[in-house]
Design a protein that fits this description.
This protein has a single domain, classed as 2-Layer Sandwich (Beta-Lactamase), CATH 3.30.450.20. It is 40% helix and 27% strand. The protein has a five-stranded antiparallel sheet with strand order 2-1-5-4-3, sandwiched between helices. The longest helix is centred in the first third of the chain and has 15 residues. InterPro entries: PAS, PAS-assoc_C, PAS-like_dom_sf. This is PAS domain S-box protein.
């Protein structure tokens, strides 16, 4: 096995076992990688999201707003809080991916489910009488 094959295997493990949900798209917004855990967050089977376009999914109300769509339009990193159709609250950061000539070739986003954290904050505020 050569170095590139080892690097690919290592990268795949990093992506598959990351705590965050990861989406990678090409420059047109077509999803080329995502973890299967997005099924829980977005309520859509993995095979229905892979190879779909983030602009189309945003129009369908699946990613509203789509961080990757924002990154691809602006060409710079963005962070936002999003609530999914499954009532999960996510903090999402997106980054443009450029080649050695600084040409935009895609985007990557990292999402962390903060639903439980937000629920605990609300309970604490309710107990302390704060709003």
């Amino acid at each position: 096995m050569n170095l590139n094959e080892h690097a690919y295997i290592i990268l795949k493990y990093i992506l598959d076992f990351s705590f965050d949900e990861i989406f990678i798209t090409d420059a047109k917004g077509n999803i080329i990688y995502t973890r299967k855990s997005e099924e829980k967050l977005f309520g859509i089977p993995h095979d229905k999201i892979l190879n779909q376009n983030v602009f189309d999914l945003e129009n369908e109300g699946i990613f509203v707003p789509s961080i990757i769509a924002k990154v691809l339009k602006a060409g710079k990193e963005k962070t936002l809080v999003q609530e999914t159709r499954n009532k999960r609250k996510l903090i999402i950061s997106g980054y443009p991916i450029s080649d050695e000539n600084n040409t935009l070739i895609g985007a990557i986003s990292f999402s962390r489910d903060i639903t439980e954290v937000e629920t605990l904050k609300k309970r604490k505020r309710a107990r302390s009488g704060c709003n």
